[in-house]
Each structure stands twice: as structure tokens, then as C-alpha cells.
Amino acid sequence: MHSDRFRPLVDAKGPFVSIYFDDSHDTQDAVAQLDARLRDIRKHLEEQAVGAAVIEAIDTAVRAAHPPVGRSGRAVIAAGDTVVLDEHLIRPPTTTVVRVSELPYVVPIVTHGLLHTAYLRVAVDHTGADITVHRSGRVDTESVDGKGYPVHKAKAAEHHEYGKAQPRVEEAVRKNIREVADRITHLTDESRAGLVFIEGEVDARAELVSALPERVAEKAVQLTGGGRAAGIDATEVQHEIGQEFLKRRLASIADAAARFAAGRGTGLAVEGLADVTAALRDGAVDTLIIGDVGEATVVADTDLATIAPDADTVSSLGGAPQRTLRADEALPLLAVATDAALVRTDERLTLADGFGAVLRYAENSSAG
Fold first, then answer.
1. Whole-angstrom distance, CA of residue 333 vs CA of residue 293
2. b/e for 90-106, b at 16 or more Cβ within 10 A?
3. What sign does the CA torsion over 235, 236, 237, 240 have?
4. What's this model's pTM, rounded to 2 decimal places?
5. InterPro entries recorded for this chain (predicted)?
6. First-to-final CA distance of the chain
7. Alpha helices in the chain (DSSP H)
8. Per-residue pLDDT of the chain (368 residues; tens, 9 = 90+)
9. Which of 71, 178, 305, 344 has the largest CB neighbor count within 10 A?
10. Helix, strand, coil fractions of the chain, as percent rounded to 5
């Protein structure tokens, strides 16, 4: 997962409130369930002496966002009384997580978040398209109604000049598809969307992909469900989109695991808190791999860049060991600050202390 989505957290001032909960809308009482979860979250925050302004900001942000379709999770991170990050997750967490701490907690987003914070969903036919732009909980929808006409082929028995009408129909369809392609290209560039999901009849989907410029076409994913007609099962389409995101997340884990395995013994991969914190201090980490971290902690100076597994190492680096921080908060945030990618691994990798890293270049020495 690219770290640029987390950059606002690096510059934000804590304390931070990091919340993860089930935000599914797959039952008739979904709104009532959301109310109950928000009451529970409010209670947890009040017990941790979080101010009313912060609680209200979180509550407002959750209620103002466009509700998801079907099963979904929600991630909200606030700094002070400002919501800095607000995203839907592919899968809801098994239990609600509420953390109030000096640093933000982003691991659940790395685990279950969408690889791309912005994506397009396009329902296309030969007359135009309905386009929805999804970006960090915000949803904007518009329609493109092509000017090409007619788009339906006359039956030969009803049209004695069928042969002449056929080219006009084909040109009208091409005109409409081009208009849709132009609008999709503009919206993709503007939103920096990572994926463009296309639903509709097979011919219309294929023609649209062919009309897109290469930089946009390579982001296109054709869905088998959905379409522009009334009565489309939105849950089915959203499930298909979720499966595509899941497939890509698993592929990113496989890629990181392969690069980590290849880097072992070459100086291009390290594991364990000592070596990983050393690589992060040097800005050498290309990809931080997060495994089973547990309750591990690290020690840091006032500057997070001076970070190590223990106070003695911080002192040896010329720093003052002033802060004891959770490793699952501090290391990912330092990785973001140094433009490293983040990957949450699964059972295919067992890492010392729960952390590994693929490096940009070989380190000359390990942590001291």
C-alpha cells in the first residue's frame, strides 16, 4: 500500500484517536446498528477523557459520509478535534478498536483498506454512462448522455434501407462511447483514481475500454455483474469490486514476500526491531512488512526519526530516550515519513518481532 494516503498524519499533532468498526449496511436495521456502535464508541472515548469536540467531530464525519453497500468496515483517525483520515474498509474488523495515543494507528487500514483511495465505477451502454467517483468516503455521481443517435439497429423486415442505416447506428454508438471515454479520462486524471470498474453489456464494456487512452485502460476492470438498467443488484456489484481489491491486496503481499525472500542474505532485506528501526532511521526502507507485532514497544527521542528498540541504543545514537511508543504505531508512521510502502503480511511470512523490510539499498551494518 502506497504511503502517500497517510502523509497528512505525519504533519498532524496528537494525541490521536484511531477507530475501526463494522460499518456494514446489509440489513434493514443498519442505521440503528450504526447508532448503537457510535454510542459504544462515544462511551469508550469518554472513559479515556477524550474531549466533547473530538467526539462530535468523529460522530459528524461518520454520519455525513455516503453509506457503503453491503459488508464494510470503517476507519476514522482524528488529531485533536480534526478528522484527518476517514475510509471504508473491504472487510469489517471482528471487534471495534478504539485507541487514544500519542501516534496514529494505521495497521488495520493496511490490512483491510482499499489499495486505492480513489476509484471510478462506470455503468455503460451504447447511449452513455453513469459514472460514480469514490474517494475517501466521498461519492460523486454524474451521467453522460451521448449525442449520437440512433443507437438501435432497425430490423431488416421493418427497414428496407437497413444496409444504409447500419453505418449510422455504428457511428452513433462510437460517438457516444468516445464521449464517455473522454469524461472518464478527465475524472480519472482529476481524482488520481487507481482503478476504473466498468459494468454493462459485454460489447459496450469492450468498446469503452478500447476507446480509453492506454494510461486509463490499464486501470480498467470489467465487471460481470451490474449495468445501467434499473433493478441492478448493487450488493452483487460491490461484492465483485471488493473481491478485486482483495485479489490485488493478496498479490501485493505475495510480491512483498517474494522480494523479502530474495533479499535475504544479500543485504536487501532485514527483520526484527533492531535491524528494521536502523533501516528506517537511515531512510533505506522501500517496503515495511508488518506481521504479528503484539504489544512490542520502541523508544524514541522527541524526533521520531531517532528510534530504536531500547533506551541504550537511542542514547548511543546521541538522542535522549524520552518516549516509549507502541511499535505498531511508531514504525508504520516513520515508514510513511520516509515514503516507504506498507504491507500487512499473512501466514506466509513469520517475522522476528513482527517486522521485516525490503530495502532500497544494502545496509553496510546492522543496528548498533
1. 15
2. bbbbeeebbbbeebbbb
3. positive
4. 0.82
5. Bact_RF_family2 (IPR040701)
6. 29
7. 7-11, 30-47, 52-64, 107-112, 162-191, 202-211, 214-217, 234-263, 273-281, 311-316, 327-337
8. 888 889 999 999 989 999 999 888 777 788 888 889 899 999 999 999 999 999 999 999 888 877 766 778 899 999 988 999 998 888 888 899 999 999 999 999 999 888 777 899 999 998 999 999 988 767 889 999 876 555 555 444 445 454 555 667 678 888 999 999 999 999 999 999 999 999 998 999 999 999 999 999 999 999 988 787 766 777 788 888 888 888 888 898 999 999 999 998 899 999 999 999 999 999 999 999 999 999 999 999 988 889 999 999 999 999 888 899 999 999 999 999 999 999 999 878 889 999 999 999 886 644 44
9. 344
10. 40, 25, 35
User: Comparing C-alpha atoms, which of 311, 307, 350, 351 is closest to residue 331?
Assistant: 307
Q: What are 120's strand-pairing partners?
A: 133, 196
Contacts of 205 (CB under 8 A, 6+ apart): 124, 198, 199, 222
Residue type, 214: E
The Cα–Cα gap between 141 and 163 comes to 38
Dig out the grid coordinates for 150 from the structure: 440512433
